[in-house]
Amino acid sequence: MKKKYFLLILSLISQFGFSQQTYKVTYSQLKEFEGLYEYINQTTIKIAASPVDTLLYAIIDKSKYPLYHSGKDLFLNRQKNKTQFFRDASNAVAGYTIDNDTLKFIRKKNVSFPKEIWYPRPTSAKDFKYTYEKPKNLKDGLAIGNVQKSGLDTALLAEMVRKIADRTYPDVHSVLIIKDGKLVFEEYFYEYTKDTLQELRSATKSFISALTGIAIDKGYIKSIQEPVLSYFPEYTFENNSPLLKKLTIENLLTNQTGLDCDITNWKSVGNETKMYESNDWVKFSLDLPMIDTPGGKGMYCTGNSIILGKIIEKETKQTLPEFAKQTLFRPLGITEFKWQFNLDKSDAETFGQLNLRPRDLAKFGLLYLNKGNWNGKQLISSDWVTQSLKKQSIIQGVDYGYQWWIKYLDADGVRYYGKVAQGNGGQKIYIWEQQNMVTVITGGNYNTQSPSNELISKYILPAFNKK
């Protein structure tokens, strides 16, 4: 089955916006489409009508994707792909079609859409009043502090929460701040709580980078200069360029493989939506044409992280999730996670991505802020952390380390430099070394501009401006 439709809106990173004309439709009319439907790979998808913005949403797991009304039973996603619903003899919605694929309506009964998925806070925006509460000590490895003693601007933080609550900044799931080693700020919105596993999308790449460093520290992998093909003697390639033999682990880490794979170029042979349709993501990625010398132009490519993960599995003789559990998650006190890493069509809807709780994302950021040390134990070598957060290449005009972005944000004319693990939807783990701070934001702004950076630059960083 083709995956041109909803799968495109699930892409880890999309650079395209939505500017299609929409047509007025009432909330009650949208309610006709609500229910459970067939979806790709024998799975299901929910369709729901939002009382907040009068839009139809496709819901997969907990993630929501808007569908814009464009005609008689016709809806478009942000990439302008068409979803045409059809009706039965009684004029009831019976399913939808995409290209030549027909997917049927399953049921409306027992399919619920709780109020919390539409509203950031239980009270209405006009009645909402924010009162700061110190994060609870869950004895999960995080020290707890009070924001009043952190140097952060409490008035700005309160304003930020109010703006999220009134949907000025929509679809923000959580905001957490660690300052001077202590969790001082922790807020959740919509149906998301401290126990919710958040999908990380491309922020998963930074975790794979960490596991690569651990595998090297433990001697499973000799060095980043090891040739990639040496790990895959079982493969034969159609595009067997001599340049492919020069490809190293370091090139994967820095996204400088030379392979025809670039997320910003939809004409790229290695476009990740094509990879998801393949039966072997590793072979698909390594068999791409070479368009540059390894170590040359930086091109953002999900397949590079996939190959890294597979190399770790081969050398440790463990699944990547199990290796992560033993060497990283358990030492950090991370007890709950979800990570399907099959690297074939069975992962087409989950992308091989990691799902973690926001507090655990904060722990990961704090681990890197502390140069790989966690409560006196060196989980990752300090040299690996230093090299990972150091400029190694340039991707999309931005400095890039080992699967970490090196960025800056401006706050009232003052520039702050940070290191960030980031993923589509607004997933951000920012490390602010000079401020001795970690900020974590999670969200659901998939394939559109996330407010995460603005929240940090407008409400968090200004507290450090010199008065």
Describe this structure in words.
With about 475 residues, the chain is of the alpha+beta class. The chain has 3 domains: about 5-115, Beta Barrel (Lipocalin), CATH 2.40.128.50; about 125-195 and about 355-465, Beta-lactamase (3-Layer(aba) Sandwich); about 200-355, DD-peptidase/beta-lactamase superfamily (Beta-lactamase), CATH 3.40.710.10. Helices cover about 25% and strands about 25% of the residues. It is built from 12 helices and 22 strands. The protein has helices spanning about 5-10, 25-30, 155-165, 205-215, 250-255, 270-275, 280-285, 300-315, 320-330, 360-370, 380-390, 450-460, and strands at about 35-40, 45-50, 55-60, 65-70, 75, 80-85, 95-100, 100-105, 145, 170-180, 180-190, 200, 335-340, 355, 375, 375-380, 395, 400, 405-410, 415-425, 425-430, 435-445. The strands form 4 sheets. A 9-stranded mixed sheet has the order 9-11-10-22-21-20-19-18-17. It has an 8-stranded antiparallel barrel with strand order 1-2-3-4-5-6-7-8. It has a 3-stranded antiparallel sheet with strand order 12-14-13. A hairpin with a 3-residue loop joins strand 1 and strand 2. The protein is globular, with a radius of gyration of 23 Å. Mean pLDDT is about 95; it is low at about 1-20.
